């Protein structure tokens, strides 16, 4: 989850009141954000430089709130958006209407997209930025593209090499009055979301508050699009679609007022049957995809902890997976035999072409005896016990189920496999070879057994 | 010498005290019984401990013979041995030295001083006897001392100087009847034996006091993993609530079932290799349900079922990438898809507790693999209120009856709630799990009927176990550095009791 750092005092000023930390945390909890940390710029710098509390550092002493917000709420990633959302939530402000200035068609600013007009060598440039710690992580976005994006102004001065760096020519200062906001992305949906988030947050400071001057983007094929698109996304839902999944009964007026607290404009629709509500989702709320998202916002505004609890009515019967139940019985048997459990019964994964993913789990039982002597007979006794308790009409063992083997991981003549009466191997055991022990740094002799549990089920 | 058992000695001693009264000197009493004092001493100590007799210690320091002196008592003093070794015609020093060995020098010296021997003129090497008989005074003195006679201080000093005697402290006892005196004491039993039961002796048994301050015998015993003990109890809670266990024995999963089917977009940061273990082999899934895959692709790209969708170019390659499942919700998704294919629809309650994998930095509270507990209910018309009700039932069985819910974000649930519980020990609200209602964009492409909702929740098994047992390092609990003492000393899991 992203964390947003804001100056506490500036934030409270924007909220129009101050809070004790406790009060603020209660508000955060209800809205679904979290006060993650309370710190200062100085403390942050100290932490970065690994200095103790007395270390002399630059930086401010003003209190900083680090606030964790939901990953899909891009409108909460700055002080302005966060403060506005909370002001609307507590009812001290109405949701703003964002709009673009109406400008005569012929005086709209234009931006032209022209591919491959000229040829430059940019590979050297890439090499140059690769050595920059901050910028190198953005190189991959355009590195393998046949063309690199570059933005010029009308005088052919470079403004930006998007994803990597902007020109000093276009840097804004406190004296800047007209700010040109440009967003570049590899995905148009995302680009629109970023642009809308940026312009709506900036628009709070515009001469005409919440009003943005549009730009016409002329594509290389001549198609023209006006950006930003600040229109609201219209949704029409029935009252029951909203209150049904929450399990509360409200009328449409109540629901509309709850939606309003979440920055969603809504009004009652004329309808003959069930009440219906028309909702306008502002350009800041790209997270709203479905009526279900409105349900959540109404539930938050209503208060999760005010929702009356109820019980699902469906009758179902509980039950366990036979393999897991069987594994538990074997685990208990091995513990009864005096072994300490450190997950001796668990799954191993092997390649398996018969499965959709190409691999499958296999349940195994493993036991290790370690002492001043190898304990070969101890493990043999455990296997005898397991063989005795797993016998069933479909799980048959003959009189002698040990067949000598010759595997390198065990000492020769002190190892064998365990076979069922049909000859199927279900496990093996032996005194672990000294070379194996040495590589694991084990100084004492060990006997190890592994058994395929699924073969015994 | 010891031809009396301690029981016999005890019987004699008690009879003697009973008839005559006192024993002033336990040493002489021992010799009268024909036993050593040491043998009698054990009987005296046992009787005194039970205050059957009262003993007074008598201690005295006495001179006793050294080993060397004991030899002289048996074979004569060195000088006497020397004289006895000289034949009438005399003998060379070398011959005598050979005969007498280590005592030759001292024997020569004293015999010469006593004028018992002489030397041939002009040949100092030939030794003659000057006397017919000698009186071995040293041997006599040693014999007298050994039999308890008191010698003059001068003799004692002389013997001491020659390291033939040494001081020894001896203890013996004066005995009389004690306050608990009995002629025959009862033997206190320490245990019940087969013999007692068979013979009927148990009726007369009187038991010795047991030392309950001592520890019991260490016993050979097996132990179960604390984490799996907690798993079993949580499992029982699910079973009581009518939940069926899901088959979660598939650690390798495709991105499709782990992410795409859950409406988790392909650019989501959780799908980055920094968070998820992708596999090199088997790298990709070969088989996906084609009809369903088309619907998933559609809902991601352009929406449907009332949704806008994410509006991006969905790629099959990305969905086919294999990984170690990051949550057991991948299994829940498979189960719900399977349920959607069964007609008519029947409600289900499912649960699982199994291993999941995250490519995370390992520290005291995080491992790259852990166990996820998950529960879900699928039915028509389920509500957020139902979810809250079920969570209260579930968590109160775990001993957490005070719950609070915080709005949260999760790509596949809407609404989503983080679950907080008030921790009495820490005196604060702690996050104990996540929950929500699965999104329509996840359920409807599967083919589940409109109006069917799924409420679900999840938490880790390790966190409640660590809180329950006060374990502050997850590596003590799970993995190759597991603490054996922790497993051995862990109390029973009382969840749900």
UniProtKB/TrEMBL annotation, chain A:
GO molecular function, a single term: RNA binding
Subcellular compartments: Cytoplasm
Similarity comment text for this entry: Belongs to the phenylalanyl-tRNA synthetase beta subunit family. Type 2 subfamily.
UniProt xrefs under PANTHER family: PHENYLALANINE--TRNA LIGASE BETA SUBUNIT, PHENYLALANYL-TRNA SYNTHETASE BETA CHAIN AND LEUCINE-RICH REPEAT-CONTAINING PROTEIN 47
Coiled coil: none
Protein name as it appears in the record: phenylalanine--tRNA ligase
One annotated GO biological process: phenylalanyl-tRNA aminoacylation
GO cellular component assignments: phenylalanine-tRNA ligase complex
Catalytic activity annotation: tRNA(Phe) + L-phenylalanine + ATP = L-phenylalanyl-tRNA(Phe) + AMP + diphosphate + H(+)
Enzyme Commission number: 6.1.1.20
Cofactor: Mg(2+)
Chief location bin: cytoplasm
Lineage: Eukaryota, Viridiplantae, Streptophyta, Embryophyta, Tracheophyta
Subunit structure: Tetramer of two alpha and two beta subunits.
Organism listed in the record: Oryza meyeriana var. granulata
B5 domain: residues covered: 230-309
Annotated InterPro entries: aa-tRNA-synth_II/BPL/LPL, B3/B4_tRNA-bd, DNA-bd_dom_put_sf, Phe-tRNA-ligase_IIc_bsu, Phe-tRNA_synthase-like_B3/B4, PheRS_beta_core, PhetRS_B1, tRNA_synthase_B5-dom
The keyword Chloroplast belongs to this UniProt entry's keyword annotation: no
Keywords, comma-separated and alphabetical: Aminoacyl-tRNA synthetase, ATP-binding, Cytoplasm, Ligase, Magnesium, Metal-binding, Nucleotide-binding, Protein biosynthesis
From TrEMBL, chain B:
Catalytic activity entry: tRNA(Phe) + L-phenylalanine + ATP = L-phenylalanyl-tRNA(Phe) + AMP + diphosphate + H(+)
InterPro entries, sorted: aa-tRNA-synth_II, aa-tRNA-synth_II/BPL/LPL, Phe-tRNA-synth_IIc_asu, Phenylalanyl-tRNA_Synthase, PheRS_DBD3
Record-linked Gene3D superfamilies: 1.10.10.2320, 1.10.10.2330, 3.30.1370.240, Bira Bifunctional Protein, Domain 2
SUPFAM superfamilies: Class II aaRS and biotin synthetases
Cofactor dependency: Mg(2+)
A GO molecular-function annotation: tRNA binding
GO BP terms: phenylalanyl-tRNA aminoacylation
Domain Aminoacyl-transfer RNA synthetases class-II family profile: 229-480
Subunit architecture: Tetramer of two alpha and two beta subunits.
Name of the protein described by the UniProt record: phenylalanine--tRNA ligase
């Amino acid at each position: 989850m992203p964390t947003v750092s804001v100056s506490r005092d500036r934030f409270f000023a924007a909220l129009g009141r101050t809070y004790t930390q406790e009060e603020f945390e209660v508000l955060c909890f209800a809205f679904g954000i979290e006060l993650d940390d309370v710190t200062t710029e100085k403390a942050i710098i100290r932490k970065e430089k690994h200095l103790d509390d007395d270390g002399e550092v630059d930086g401010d002493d003003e209190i900083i709130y680090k606030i964790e917000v939901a990953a899909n709420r891009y409108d909460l990633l700055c002080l302005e958006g966060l403060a506005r959302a909370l002001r609307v939530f507590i009812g001290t402000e109405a949701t703003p209407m964002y709009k673009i200035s109406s400008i005569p068609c012929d005086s709209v600013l234009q931006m032209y997209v022209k591919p491959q007009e000229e040829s430059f060598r940019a590979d050297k440039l890439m090499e140059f930025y690769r050595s920059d710690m901050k910028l190198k992580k953005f190189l991959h976005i355009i590195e393998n593209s046949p063309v690199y994006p570059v933005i010029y102004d009308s005088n052919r001065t470079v403004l930006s090499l998007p994803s990597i760096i902007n020109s000093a020519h276009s840097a804004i200062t406190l004296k800047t009055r007209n700010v040109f906001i440009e967003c570049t992305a590899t995905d148009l949906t995302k680009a629109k979301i970023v642009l809308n988030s940026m312009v709506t947050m900036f628009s709070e400071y515009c001469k005409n508050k919440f009003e943005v001057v549009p730009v016409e983007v002329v594509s290389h094929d001549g198609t023209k699009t006006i950006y930003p698109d600040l229109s609201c996304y219209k949704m029409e839902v029935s009252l029951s679609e909203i209150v049904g999944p929450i399990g509360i009964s409200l009328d449409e007026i109540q629901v509309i007022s709850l939606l309003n607290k979440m920055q969603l404009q809504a009004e009652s629709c004329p309808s003959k049957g069930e009440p219906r509500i028309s909702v306008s989702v502002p350009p800041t709320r790209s997270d709203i995809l479905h009526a279900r998202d409105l349900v959540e916002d109404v539930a938050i505004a209503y208060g999760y902890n005010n929702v009356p609890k109820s019980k699902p009515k469906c009758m179902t019967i509980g039950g366990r997976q036979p393999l897991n139940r069987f594994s538990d019985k074997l685990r208990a048997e091995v513990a009864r035999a005096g072994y300490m459990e450190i997950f001796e019964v668990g799954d191993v994964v092997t390649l398996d072409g018969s499965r959709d993913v190409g691999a499958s789990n296999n349940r195994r039982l493993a036991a290790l005896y370690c002492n001043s002597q190898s304990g070969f007979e101890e493990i043999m006794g455990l296997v005898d016990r397991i063989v005795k308790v797993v016998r069933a009409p479909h799980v048959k063992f003959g009189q002698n189920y040990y067949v000598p083997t010759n595997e390198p991981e065990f000492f020769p003549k002190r190892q064998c496999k365990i076979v069922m009466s049909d000859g199927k191997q279900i496990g093996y055991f032996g005194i672990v070879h000294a070379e194996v022990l040495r590589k694991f740094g084990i100084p004492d002799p060990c006997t190890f057994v592994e058994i395929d549990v699924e073969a015994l089920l | 010498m010891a031809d009396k058992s301690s029981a016999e000695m005890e019987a004699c001693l008690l009879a003697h005290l009973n008839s005559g009264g006192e024993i002033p000197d336990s040493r002489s009493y021992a010799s009268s019984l024909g036993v050593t004092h040491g043998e009698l001493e054990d009987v005296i100590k046992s009787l005194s401990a039970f205050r059957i007799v009262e003993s007074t210690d008598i201690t005295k320091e006495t001179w006793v013979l050294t080993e060397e002196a004991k030899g002289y008592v048996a074979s004569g003093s060195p000088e006497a041995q020397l004289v006895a070794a000289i034949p009438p015609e005399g003998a060379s020093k070398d011959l005598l030295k050979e005969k007498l060995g280590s005592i030759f020098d001292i024997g020569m010296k004293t015999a010469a001083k006593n004028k018992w021997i002489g030397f041939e003129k002009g040949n100092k090497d030939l030794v003659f006897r000057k006397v017919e008989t000698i009186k071995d005074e040293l041997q006599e003195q040693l014999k007298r001392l050994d039999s308890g006679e008191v010698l003059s201080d001068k003799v004692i000093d002389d013997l001491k100087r020659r390291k033939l005697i040494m001081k020894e402290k001896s203890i013996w006892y004066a005995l009389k009847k004690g306050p608990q005196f009995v002629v025959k004491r009862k033997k206190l039993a320490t245990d019940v034996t087969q013999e007692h039961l068979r013979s009927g002796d148990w009726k007369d048994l009187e038991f010795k006091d047991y030392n309950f301050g001592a520890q019991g015998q260490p016993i050979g015993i097996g132990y179960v993993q604390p984490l799996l003990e907690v798993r079993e109890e949580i499992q029982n809670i699910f079973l009581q609530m009518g939940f069926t266990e899901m088959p979660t024995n598939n650690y390798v999963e495709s991105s499709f079932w782990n992410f795409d089917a859950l409406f988790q977009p392909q650019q989501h940061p959780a799908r980055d290799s920094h968070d998820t273990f992708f596999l090199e082999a088997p790298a990709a899934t070969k088989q996906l349900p084609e009809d369903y895959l088309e619907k998933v692709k559609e809902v991601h790209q352009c929406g449907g079922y009332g949704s806008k969708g994410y509006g991006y170019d969905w790629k099959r390659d990305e969905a086919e990438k294999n990984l170690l499942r990051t949550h057991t919700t991948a299994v829940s998704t498979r189960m719900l898809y399977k349920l959607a294919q069964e007609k008519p629809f029947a409600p289900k309650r499912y649960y699982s507790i199994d291993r999941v994998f995250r490519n995370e930095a390992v520290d005291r509270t995080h491992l790259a693999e852990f166990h996820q507990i998950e529960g879900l209910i699928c039915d028509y018309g389920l509500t957020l209120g139902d979810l809250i009700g079920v969570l209260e039932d579930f968590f109160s069985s775990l001993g957490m009856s005070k719950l609070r819910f915080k709005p949260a974000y999760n790509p596949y649930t809407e609404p989503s709630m983080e679950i907080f519980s008030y921790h009495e020990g820490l005196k604060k609200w702690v996050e104990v799990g996540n929950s929500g209602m699965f999104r329509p964009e996840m359920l409807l492409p599967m083919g589940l009927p409109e109006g069917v909702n799924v409420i679900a929740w999840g938490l880790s098994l390790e966190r409640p176990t660590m809180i329950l047992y006060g374990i502050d390092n997850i590596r003590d609990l799970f993995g190759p550095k597991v603490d054996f003492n922790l497993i051995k000393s862990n109390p029973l899991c009382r969840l749900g009791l």
